[in-house]
Amino acid sequence: MDIARLRKFDFFLGSILIVMLRPASILLGTILGRNHDLTIRKQLVVMKIKGGGSLLLALPAMLSLRKKYPDKTFTLITSTEVKPFADLMGVFDEIVLVDTSRFISFFTSSLSALQKAWRADGLINFEIHSKLTTVFSSLSCARNRFGFYHETNSWQRDVITHLFFYNITSPVYVNYNQVALALGAEILPYREVSEFFVQHNKLKNSLHEEQEIKVVLTPFCSDLGKEREFFPEHWAKILKTKFENKPPLLIILGGVSDTSRASVLEIYLKKALPDFIIDNRVGQTTLYESVLIIKSAQELLTIDSGLNHVARLIGGDIHVTSYWGPTDPITRLAPFSNLKETVVYTKLFCSPCVHVVTTPPCKGNNICMKQYAKQDLNQYSTGGWMIISNSATPRNI
What we know:
- This protein is of the alpha/beta class and about 400 residues long.
- It contains 14 helices and 14 strands.
- The protein has two domains: about 5-190, Glycogen Phosphorylase B (Rossmann fold), CATH 3.40.50; about 215-395, 3-Layer(aba) Sandwich (Rossmann fold), CATH 3.40.50.2000.
- Helix 9 packs across helix 10 (about 260-270) and helix 11 crosses helix 12.
- The radius of gyration is 22 Å and the shape is globular.
């Protein structure tokens, strides 16, 4: 299922099931009178189906919990595309996959995952906007079921045992940390989190090749908010300006699903930047192999993406330059101190919109990203345009 179908499926089926489950949940909670003390005795389950980068933002919380409960079983329920990010984290004892490609496989794999989560001591649902993961959490009969609420998903009440306020204007990792603190963990210093990540993935030694300038470009993100991406012509302008005097070896990285778009980007860049050496490895490397390539580079150019979060955890010598538009970097970038970083963000009045609304007000005409390829940003950053609700194109005032 593509992301649009998955959202509709989640909304309609999830809404029906929650309406059916709520009375039973209230009644059984009253009758059984279960002990909901916040202690992990045997098993803690975490759910994160979409967004590998978002899962990495939970590493400080999960590593802190791992330190608090070193001998307990930590189970992650996730999807195939997120699993490689979970492997990099090194905190889960078992990873259970839910197949979201088809309705039937989604149903059968969810039943298998439900068996793994059955009557766990705690289940943390990191899918903030999903109704079906809330249903799953309830059906698991976990003793403590942790979720996050804000005004638009208050339907979780009476189905989830412990609801934490999710502030969309606060950093994501701070919201996640609430659960770890409630479970008695002490959040580790972020330098320690980064050091653990580097050590777990054996990234300690520098692999820089001094003879050439190696720059990694990670221009793609997940299906959740494609407005975060540039078009090829925008990358061409940015790269030409940035490396006008010293064209580098440019390595493009991404997943298998990005292959076709990467080919278009490669062709465009080779024509626009003939002095650059362009090596398109999109879809040809595992996530871990991509991590090693990033580690060996002098610089990374990226957007709000999973690989951006990977690079920030690595830290060290690489300089990370990230471009932000429909998401606010303050809500996504944890304070890792061992990091050389440039964050490019010129706020527009409609930013952030991704993770805030389902349909961006510009309807995909991501002017917040396009502005960085222009000489003069004033017409965008000072409000010299407006977005009409029925229009997909900003209009000059």
